[in-house]
Amino acid sequence: MKSSFVFSGSGGQGIMSAGIMLAHTAIDMGKHATYLPEYGPEQRGGSAKCTVVISDDPIISPLPKHCDNLIALNALAYAKFGEDIKSGGLLLANSNRISDGLDRTDVTVISAPVDDISLEVGSPKTANIILLGILIGATDIVSKDTLILSLEDKFKDKKPEILEMNLRALDKGIELGKQAKK
């Protein structure tokens, strides 16, 4: 099995961190994974995108022509990459920032108010983790337990409250993803 994921949004939204964590988690589970970041010319607030490919077999090309899954944190990201999703693919959208254009009938759309949920969890910086959780809950592409190890490693030098907040965000996302899968 081979799946491609495009994470997209603005610089500073944690797009690259989410992609790296997904790729590392897949590798920790014994799968093959590639991670390819793309940045706009701006340091913060500009466009940010990364592509992750996960496969049971070696990966020949890290950049697919079309992606199986698009994770879009804002309207610009969806406008730029929404047409890149393969028919039959999955679109995860932050409904707080994407309200129009989610009308593709050939893909599964999961739209959630990720900004609102991140504030409930404790910080707007958790939006990327919530979307990563939705992805895992909807697809089971990696295991929650292995991703938790990646989160623990990422936040090992931070206050324990930061890890706990991100774990709550992950749980909330997984719950939403599982509900959407039903």
Structure in words:
The chain has 182 residues and is α/β, with parallel strands linked by helices. The chain is built from 6 helices and 6 strands, in the order E-H-E-E-E-H-E-E-H-H-H-H. It has helices at 15-28, 75-81, 114-121, 127-139, 144-154, 160-181, and strands spanning 2-10, 32-39, 47-55, 67-72, 85-94, 108-112. It has a 6-stranded mixed sheet, sandwiched between helices. Helix 1 (15-28) packs across helix 5 (144-154), helix 4 (127-139) packs parallel to helix 6 and helix 5 (144-154) packs antiparallel against helix 6 (160-181). The model has no long low-confidence stretch (mean pLDDT 92).
Condensed summary:
The protein has 182 residues and is α/β, with parallel strands linked by helices.
Strand and helix layout:
Blueprint: E1 2-10, H1 15-28, E2 32-39, E3 47-55, E4 67-72, H2 75-81, E5 85-94, E6 108-112, H3 114-121, H4 127-139, H5 144-154, H6 160-181
Parallel strand pairs: 1-4, 4-5, 5-6
Antiparallel strand pairs: 1-3, 2-3
Helix pairs in contact: 1-5, 4-6, 5-6
Number of strands: 6
Query: Which spans have pLDDT < 50 for at least 5 consecutive residues?
Result: none
The class by helix and strand makeup works out as alpha/beta
The overall pLDDT, averaged over residues, is 92
Q: How big a fraction of the residues is strand?
A: 25-35%
Rg, rounded, reads 15 Å
What sort of overall outline do the alpha carbons produce when their principal axes are compared?
Answer: globular
Helix tally equals: 6
Describe the largest sheet.
6 strands, mixed
Q: Helical percent range?
A: 40-55%
Distance between the terminal alpha carbons, to the nearest Å? 22 Å
Run of helices and strands: EHEEEHEEHHHH
- Biggest sheet: strand arrangement: 2-3-1-4-5-6
